[in-house]
Amino acid sequence: MGTHDPHGFPGRLIVVEGIDGSGKSTQLSLLQTFLVSEGYDVSFTEWNSSPVVKNTTKRGKKKNLFSPTTFSLIHATDFADRHERSILPPLQAGLIVLADRYAYTAFARDSARGCDRDWLRNLYAFATRPDLALYFKVDIDTAVARITGGRIQLKFHEAGMDLGLSSDPITSFRIFQSRVLEEYGRVAEEFGLTVLDGARSVVEQQREMRRLVRPILKGLRRTLAPRAPAASVPAAGARREPEVSAP
Ligand SMILES: Nc1ncnc2c1ncn2[C@@H]1O[C@H](COP(=O)(O)OP(=O)(O)OP(=O)(O)O)[C@@H](O)[C@H]1O
Ligand SMILES: [Mg+2]
Fold this sequence. Notes:
Rossmann fold, 11% strand, binds adenosine-5'-triphosphate, binds magnesium ion
């Protein structure tokens, strides 16, 4: 197996990390479109989406019933369920699994909420090591501007309002997300996450993302030939240029 095989499964696992508003979902969705157009089989999974804990999470959040520990455990349950059902099977079947947030999110957020770092690492010890973990690093101002620009209100928990840091959601967001950001720095170093400058344009970041993804696709089987552009059919053997071409 090559150097890009941290797990021994035939598929590939690519994860994105970063604070709220860092541009993870935007970039991952563009990557997904690109990979599918290149003929790869792709499976997507996102943080906090397992049906197993959905109602409990919703109720607990609404009534603010969680402590940092129980909040962390419910996310770990969500993750364990998705790991079994939505991450391992496609990896075993040779697909590319794209994960919007991974265990590193728990390491950063939950320790910012006061959970013990070693306890968290132990809790997630079963998590498959990704082939590529991208960390979209942005400053708090950029994140706040993006989030408040796109939405009416900051969500209670993303602003860390459960911690009673401030009664003003924006102030609370700044304090809480600064802690998360600091933890992300630590986590990025510890686990060797690939850091991207999340403040750059969508196109620049996507170009870099594709450049980073390309080497880990070597040897991976495609189910379809890369889709030819609609307007012109390239000559046999000609490679189609992606919409955002790699440098
Ligand atoms: N490079 C960029 N430059 C400017 N705006 C961006 C950029 N990337 C994303 N945005 C915008 O910022 C907002 C947040 O982006 P996105 O939803 O991708 O972030 P996220 O990291 O997935 O956040 P969350 O953790 O809350 O899901 C969106 O309105 C998006 O259109
Ligand atoms: Mg997102």
